[in-house]
Amino acid sequence: MIIQRPRGTRDFLPEETERRSQAKKAMQDVLERWGYREVATPTFEHLELFTIKSGASVIEEIYSFKDKGGRDLALRPELTAPVMRMFVSELQNSPKPQRLWYFGNCFRYERPQKGRFREFWQMGCELIGGSKPDSEAEAVALASRMLQSVGVSGDIHIGYLGLIRSILGKIPGEHRSSVMRMIDKKERDALATLLEEIGCSHFGLLELIDSKGESALDRAAQIVADWKPAQEAAAAAPEPVSANEAAAVTSSSSGRGSARQGRAVEAQLHLEEFVQTVDLLKAYGVNFTIDFEIVRGLEYYSGTVFEVYAEGLGAQRQICGGGTYELASLFGGKETSSTGFGLGFDRIMEIVQMNSSRPSPVFMAFTPDVKREAARIASRLRESVPVVMDVMGRGLKAQLKAAASAGADYAVIVGKDELDAGRLTLRDMSGGAQESLLIAEIEARLKAHFQDIC
RNA sequence: GCCGGGAUAGGGUAGUGGUUAUCCUGAGGGACUGUGGAUCCCUCGAGCUGGGUUCGAAUCCCGGUCCCGGCCCCA
Fold first, then answer.
1. Domain spanning A14-351 has what CATH number?
2. Per-residue pLDDT tens digits for A2-52
3. Cβ contact A40:A102 at 8 Å
4. Cα separations (Å) of A274 from A8, A303, A344, A410?
5. What CATH number was assigned to the domain covering residues A362-453?
6. Of residues 175 to 194 in chain A, which lie within 7 A of strand B by their beta carbon?
7. Å between A399 CA and B45 C1'?
8. What pLDDT, on the 0 to 100 scale, is given for residue A181?
9. In Å, what is the separation between the CA of A412 and the C1' of B31?
């Protein structure tokens, strides 16, 4: 009986594995050119690491288990938390910034579908401890360059949480998380209704998330500017003037007015930060769309957030997500702002146009009586080029046939005649031309051939 | 967790309640005992799994597993 693969897992045959390592290599080269260094973390961690980061609800989708000592463990569902755990316990006192990258398999107990598996691979990086606008621009530009390196073009959408959090600050605490959730889920109508109900529809939140692209920045600036007259108006007029104007503030106390003023100033600072990120990103030559609707749901994101979408992936269009977050302190470390992103490697592989064309090894063909000499010659040649030898006990004819069907460009033939002459036969498999050459000559010839191809 | 479609030699397919068949590929042998992708012949190789109906099931029925697409979710 044949044992099947567990659900949502895959086998990668040589050709696909070759494609994957080529793509990984291309993106890895970009990371290394940007000064990032690879790290690796355990495949399983304490379950708590992930629930602290993402909440208890993720347990549903985690491969978690108790080990024989009764510990609650989990196969990692993502890599940011493990990398930040490692940072907090090992690297906190090392020079900043830390530029780290990773590539690893992750596991989620989900229903498989196009571009979604239970074991999947993430590639990503964390830029730890840098200052915001610069780190953010670097991260987005780096993600863009990595995708470019494998010929994938995606739509980059970048949002900014600083501003949205300022607005949230004006909203009663008990509603904040539902507001965030609705933005994230794009439940626009429900959001409008809720904001109306709690009297917060005038802060410009809907306007902000509705505007996309270049104009979104001006819109945002306008919204922040509108809060200033609001303070003056609030000081002068105790009653809201109009429900549609930012001037319509429900409070009349000067104490709360100054709190608002504080927030407006803060929001303005935030906005300036974001403007710097955007400017720098333009300098990097990256194409992107400003989209304040990108909020990435979670509490620990604090600054710029971004996502990249690609066509041709059905329902799973997102191939990259990231942003600036505060996680170090969640894991017991010092407050450290970091920016990072993860790429969905498997989704990228679905759309990447890459043909693996690794040249087939040289075929060492020999007659049975000179097997030992053939093995020695093969070893010598392997110092410069890939060589395979028959292990099927085939005759010379069958070996050459096998070499041809394996796509070998060259065969080296050795038998008694060759040994007597002190020269080997080099056969060009494409035309069938043969030459009698010294081993050093063959080595040089083959070496040159492989260098041409690779 | 929900909805739909699937599973037949290594890979494609067709078909039928009664030694299935076909295309490609692979292995072994032969035409051909130191020179290849050809051709021909022979052999090997299959119906996801567990149960039921039946004299007989790869085929009909029921569970399960896995795959594909979508919903939910997506750190």
1. 3.30.930.10
2. 677 888 998 888 888 888 999 999 999 999 999 999 999 999 999 999 999
3. yes
4. 40, 8, 26, 59
5. 3.40.50.800
6. 185
7. 24
8. 87
9. 28
